[in-house]
Amino acid sequence: MSGASYSRDRIDSVLLKAKFPDCYRIVPGRYRASPLGTVSADSRFCSRNAGYSVLYAAPDFATAFIETVVRDRFVRRRERTVAVREITERCWARVSARPGEVLALLDLRGDGCTRIGAPSDTVHARNHAAGRAFARTIHAGHADIDGLVHVSRLTGGDVYAVFDRCAGKLEAVETGALAEHPDLPAVLERHGIGLVR
Q: Which of 22, 157, 184 has the alpha carbon at shortest distance from 94?
């Protein structure tokens, strides 16, 4: 898709300009001192060769955990376990907008994709090809857009995807070991997840 695939009028109809809410991000523990760093990697809105990277965060701790650690691993499986090291080797960060910063985010929740004319697979498909193509088009064709907000297909909670070019508008206001987060036991219990060594 070229940048002309989505008219600016349609883009503007779902463009939010608001303060980024307090969100959680889960990263490898070795990045606890710099939890806002990103690399080009395969994800819903980025690929290894995209030429940019994306910072993902969620206002709800459970959504951040499921999106980062669990994903689709339990589909058609009876055993619902996660290795202890997957918890102990990660940390969490609470991310917020820097004072006075406002982000321009495409709101793909609800009927956002329909209003833009983007395929619903952009945010709903297990295969990320449509999301990557859409984000690549937006990143290349609309330099004023900082990122996207969509609903997690795994939890129904909001997920923010911020392009690396705008990560400087954010700051980490708190960090901690994932194993010590007070909400972790409730998330494991709700989803029936056991820990194994």
A: 22
